[in-house]
Amino acid sequence: MTPLTSEAAINPTAVATARSDAPSENLLSRVVDMFEALADPTRARILYALRGGELCGRDLAIVVGVSKSAASHQLRLLRDRRLVKPRRAGNIIYYAADDVHVSALFREAEYHVDHVRPGLPGHPYPQP
Known about the structure:
It is a single chain. The chain has helices at residues 12-21, 25-38, 41-50, 57-64, 68-80, 100-116, and strands at residues 55-56, 84-89, 92-97. By secondary structure, the protein is mainly alpha-helical. The longest helix is centred in the last third of the chain and has 17 residues, at 100-116. The relative contact order is 0.10.
């Protein structure tokens, strides 16, 4: 990645470390795609509904309060981003969260919101 400024760094060592720790463009693009998929209230409601277990498309539409067509459209996007996985049983398709990381993303976002609003310190995660 080429620097966008010709200014000298205040802390060249920190800049070098941050650059070497940065994700590849491919990984960054995939992470951004995932967050874009999560940044929609309907898709978030779908994923919250799936935290309790799998549901068919029709039941998801009912839970989320959208048409079957709208639910199907959102599920297709979530499936493309590997946030949900389908399972066919006859002519019914059931959906589940792709893996435990999907629920963990929401849990971490909830922790963040719970700490930011009242000004509490963050969780004591070890730094890499």
